[in-house]
Amino acid sequence: MAALELFFSFLLLLIFFFIIPTQASCPPSSCPRGPTVRFPFRLQRFQLRRCGYAGFDLSCNNQTLQTTLSLSNFSGNNFIVQTIDYGHQTLTVNDPDHCLPKRFLDRSFDNLLDTTPFRIHSFQMYTFLNCSPQATSIPATARNISCLSGENHTVFAMPSGAYDNWLQSTATSPSPSPSSSGLSCAISSVRVPARAANELGVFGDAIEDVALTWSTPDCRVCETSGRDCGLNRDSQIVCSDPKAKRKGLPRSAKYGIIIGVGIPGILCILGLASYVCGRINAYGRRNRPNMDLSTSASQQPAIVVVGLDGPTIESYPKTLLGESRRLPKSNDTTCSICLGEYQPKEELRTIPECNHYFHASCVDEWLKMNATCPVCRKSPEGSALVTPSSSMSSSSTSLPSP
């Protein structure tokens, strides 16, 4: 176990000194449907807190997978981040429902100076008219805001100056006043970001976005020089070379770490393998006595009757066939062992108990291994039986008969 712990210790050192320094500590991130997020912004749950600047936290919307920015402490004041221009320190936002006029009426952009580091350079005053269907006199410069309108009312928007001029023109004209002519509109004047106001006056509610800028932290010098902006350990803005981050340790240092950690790691693996093999061998030795005992018991010779001894076999009568091949049993003309017919001048041997004839050579070999007649399986009476041990000893001391 000690070898295993030592190996994992060296592995952790390898990861800490070799792998970690070669990676950027605050790599860029992004939502699936959003721009690239890097300092001074920080994508919550994906980047460390030290990777961003205070007030620049972004998040990913779980439903739309878009990047969102909150301009207040209320979750209902979230905006979709469409683009981030790090060189000009500008980002563009839009309403999640694509109805920016609603956010103008909510005055979501009025208190940026108090709650966020973002600014809007200039505003224009706009007048919103919430008119009933009975309204008969609508200014020509008013634009329909369809995302705020409904079946029982229609919302219009126009520059406040143009609305004031229209009121003056209706007051001096002989026509009835707005209230008496059936205008039936509720009036609200709000501040609208200048660029969005220009689009609102031309396209109505088809406003693409609102541009926000920031001045602190100022990373424009780093961006224009192609370097990365970030915080050091003292929370100061610094510029770093991205190539130096990717380079990490020198190649010689990497090779030194690989050799210095790899060789001890290999030795630890070999030691661990030796330890495991030793444990396996020890376990095998503990179980070996029982196996040896069973093996020795199985190797002891069993006393089994297998055949007759040589003198007993030679005591059985022999017969030399003549030319006529005449035998006591006329139908007994074939040796039952080799299945060959008897020929003149062949020696036959007879088993006394049953008077069955066989070739002498065939039945001699048979009786050495079997103590019964090959035909009737009778065992001759008074025959000397042999065991494997006795047959081995007798074969080693006796000489073959001529």
UniProtKB/TrEMBL annotation:
It catalyses: S-ubiquitinyl-[E2 ubiquitin-conjugating enzyme]-L-cysteine + [acceptor protein]-L-lysine = [E2 ubiquitin-conjugating enzyme]-L-cysteine + N(6)-ubiquitinyl-[acceptor protein]-L-lysine. It is found in: Membrane. Residues 335-377 form the RING-type domain. InterPro entries: ATL20-22-like, WAK_GUB, Znf_RING, Znf_RING/FYVE/PHD. Residues 1-24 form the signal peptide. Belongs to the RING-type zinc finger family. ATL subfamily. This is RING-type E3 ubiquitin transferase. The gene is LOC103337715.
